[in-house]
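In the design runs reported in the main text, the only information available to the sequence generator was the tokenized backbone. The following block is the verbatim input for one such run; it is reproduced so that readers can re-run the procedure and compare outputs position by position.
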């Protein structure tokens, strides 16, 4: 799946219902957002996130992935904690809607978000957190060029489960070199 088959667009209030409907339970929400949202996801929480996307140098960029051929929304992604002074940000809340998984949209969406972060926002480094059991996401991030730099064991508890977090990063330099290959 090539990046040209999707495009990233701003996520807005008209997208709330589709995203809320994609979150089936508390475990899924926790896996998708860490402890940033509380189950059940609702309009108020999403509005609070969108408030961070305004101003001259917004700290968040909330996006949706839209198929170029059908204009159907296939996923959601955010650049968070954007720090223009040190040129860094956090990639997160990456979600491909259930009917669109396994078609390469995740890699395309992450690739476009990374390109936007480095080229449009001028960031020099992007980090992310991913739970170690999310092997599909880890493979996607590594295919874009992210590397592991820390493992946080026992970072989160859900019911009787202990979840480990892998911290990953990608520098503009590494990404540019990978793009040239």
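Verbatim output:
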């Amino acid at each position: 799946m090539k990046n040209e088959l999707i495009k990233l667009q701003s996520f807005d209030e008209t997208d709330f219902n589709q995203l809320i409907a994609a979150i089936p339970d508390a475990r899924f929400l926790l896996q998708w957002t860490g402890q940033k949202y509380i189950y059940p996801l609702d309009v108020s929480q999403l509005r609070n996130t969108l408030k961070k996307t305004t101003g001259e140098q917004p700290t968040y960029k909330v996006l949706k992935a839209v198929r170029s051929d059908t204009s159907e929304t296939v996923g959601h992604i955010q650049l968070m904690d954007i720090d223009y002074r040190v040129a860094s940000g956090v990639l997160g809340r990456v979600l491909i809607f259930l009917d669109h998984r396994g078609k390469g949209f995740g890699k395309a969406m992450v690739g476009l978000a990374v390109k936007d972060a480095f080229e449009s926002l001028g960031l020099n480094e992007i980090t992310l957190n991913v739970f170690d059991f999310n092997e599909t996401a880890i493979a996607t991030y590594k295919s874009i060029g992210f590397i592991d730099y820390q493992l946080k064991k026992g970072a989160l508890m859900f019911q009787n489960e202990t979840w480990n977090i892998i911290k990953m990063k990608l520098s503009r330099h590494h990404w540019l070199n990978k793009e040239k290959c």
